[in-house]
């Protein structure tokens, strides 16, 4: 392992590593992934244990503070988050400036970015108290903003947060409740969504987290940085993959057509890829995919949808792909997105909102990583180098000679 900075300073050398396949951009104590083993740890705790024993807010506390909360800390943190769930009344006007058929992720980029115009004290982020309040505000307001984006797209009235409900049940109330009827959360479905949040809470230096860090490295407002992360997450190769995966399953349509699509995925001349398969770091099962498959089964059973067509199709596709030479050789396994679309659809979340749910959960990781960067004594503005391959120096010709 070579310290590139020292090497660069002494010799003027630097690495060319497109896609950052083997370049670490930072040191971090937050999340560890062993891609060969298929292991994911948040602050040292296996994701399976966290999904089993903790709720999402405990995981949020852990990611930010490094330790799980005790009962008292948990209660205090939950109360603090509840105090910040409302959004400024003027923010409602931002929604009204968007077309109703706008993609909710486009709305999220704008509205979350606009929070930076409401909280100027967030700029004093060398003060721990200010970093804490920024974290609490955004973690508390994301469910409200996501639910507002959904309600706006539906032309339905916004639902105010209910502080008698816990974090995830309150989100479901704001998504699915109406002013005419008190929303009664189903504990099995609430728990399922809560686990989905936990599974998406952090994933070390993925594209969107690196974007948040890079934006934050210049000293930008944290809400503007989260907005940058949301923009990056939107792409189909990242957070948009669950939406793309569900669309793909619909396109395949029936178990009888799985072979045809597997063949297409293997064809070099066909741009089709199996969505929800493959990962830059996992060269084994994505542990989140296993947990997601279980959550998916639980939700479908609770709703009496055990024979769901897309779930059966996904199980068949997974089985066939995992036995196929191409997928074995390239170490392509299902990732977290493979089952998450099916389970979210069963929960009543429309496809266009899937990536917003991901953004809601990942905000916790983004903020924890943003803070970790700022308090790192080695922290510097992010400034990648490039390998210039353009024209050599030349002179500008007068316009009549070009
Ligand atoms: N279907 C078919 N072939 C695939 C797939 C796939 N889903 N994924 C990778 N491959 C092939 C590539 O064509 C490539 O083949 P080659 O070696 O012959 O050129 C090889 O496997 C390696 O793939 P890369 O794209 O080079 O791997 P990379 O690490 O750059 O990309 C990625 C990872 C983007 C996730 C990719 O596997 C993919 O596009 N998967 C589908 C989209 C998806 O599910 N994204 C969600 C990722 S998880 C997340 O963001 C939460």
UniProtKB/TrEMBL annotation:
<dbReference type="InterPro" id="IPR019810">
    <property type="entry name" value="Citrate_synthase_AS"/>
</dbReference>
<protein>
    <recommendedName>
        <fullName>Citrate synthase</fullName>
    </recommendedName>
</protein>
<dbReference type="InterPro" id="IPR010953">
    <property type="entry name" value="Citrate_synthase_typ-I"/>
</dbReference>
<dbReference type="Pfam" id="PF00285">
    <property type="entry name" value="Citrate_synt"/>
</dbReference>
<dbReference type="InterPro" id="IPR024176">
    <property type="entry name" value="Citrate_synthase_bac-typ"/>
</dbReference>
<dbReference type="InterPro" id="IPR036969">
    <property type="entry name" value="Citrate_synthase_sf"/>
</dbReference>
<keyword id="KW-0012">Acyltransferase</keyword>
<comment type="pathway">
    <text>Carbohydrate metabolism; tricarboxylic acid cycle; isocitrate from oxaloacetate: step 1/2.</text>
</comment>
<keyword id="KW-0816">Tricarboxylic acid cycle</keyword>
<dbReference type="InterPro" id="IPR016142">
    <property type="entry name" value="Citrate_synth-like_lrg_a-sub"/>
</dbReference>
<dbReference type="InterPro" id="IPR016143">
    <property type="entry name" value="Citrate_synth-like_sm_a-sub"/>
</dbReference>
<dbReference type="InterPro" id="IPR002020">
    <property type="entry name" value="Citrate_synthase"/>
</dbReference>
<dbReference type="GO" id="GO:0036440">
    <property type="term" value="F:citrate synthase activity"/>
</dbReference>
<keyword id="KW-0808">Transferase</keyword>
<comment type="similarity">
    <text>Belongs to the citrate synthase family.</text>
</comment>
